[in-house]
Amino acid sequence: MFRDTADYVKRCETCQRTKVEQAGPAGLMGHRVVKGPWTVITADIMGPFPKSRSGFAYILVVQDLFTKWVECFALRAANGKKICEVLEEVLSRWETPRFVLTDNGTEFVNETIQAFATEHGITHTIIPPYHLQANPVERVNRVLKTMIVAFLERSSRVG
């Protein structure tokens, strides 16, 4: 069974195009100590994708670093206002985190996000540019991208 699965993945054109080498990073990496659920979360935007029939083109990915729980939200626009609306929804279901890690994209580095963080007592930490390894949600994004591409290709063949 394992060999059949491995052979299938090796022959799958979509898998070969979308999956990346799983080599470990060079050198030593520091570790982030997370004391409990929803104390540190990370967020990232994926997209733009081809617009859905409903006009959605982006996905906001939010991950709790303690439990590794991931939530994804479809967005029509990737801006501070829309992201704050989604984060408000997330905070209403879970605890307010002490820290939020994001990249330095304009959708996260703006007055709206800063005001939201201040209002909720959250420290917004920005990952250094061009250092994707520092943002753990990037691993989740890789898996999601593979799944989305495979789904879109499959649905375009069927429909």
TrEMBL record:
What biological process terms from GO does the record include?
DNA integration
GO molecular function of the protein, one example?
A: nucleic acid binding
Pfam (any one): rve
On the tree of life, the source organism's domain of life is: Eukaryota
* Positions in coiled-coil regions: none
Name all Integrase catalytic domain ranges: 33-159
Descriptive protein name: Reverse ribonuclease integrase
